[in-house]
Amino acid sequence: MKIILASQSPRRKEILKGLGYSFLVVPSLYDEHIELANGIDQGVETLALEKAKSVQKNNPDAIIVAADTIVVLDGRILGKPKSKQEAIDMLIDLSGRAHEVKTGVCISSINQDITFCETTKVYFKDFTLYISENTRADNVILGRDVRLIFGKEKKQSLGPCRRSRRR
Question: What is the spatial distance between Cα 51 and Cα 43, in angstroms, rounded to a whole number?
Fold first, then answer.
């Protein structure tokens, strides 16, 4: 049976390849609005389900794998930063604190949907001083390091944090 990853995420591709699966990539065009009426975990699971179903419409015989990841600090969802300054502000908010990274996952076939939410608690060291001393536009904190934290690259390679997982 054909497997489709409903994402262009390099990390998700790497995970499936690492598990030995052959798959096609068909990104979902579903609007990434999270419905929070039933809580954050259910909202991110539902978003993954909707992404999977949007791809499955044109691929009814495939198994669809979809996921969405959010960052939650003090009960509020942090979106992707829209500017370098917003990224710096978010880093300052996260510095020296714990936050949660929640990933909703859906594995869907025409007959069955399996959804779940995986939560990882992440502890950042206090790096406020580093940020405040290094916020020039040409500095690395505004480039690769920010992308590491906000989903453009592997979170696992980020230095100033500790992780613990719970479901």
Answer: 12
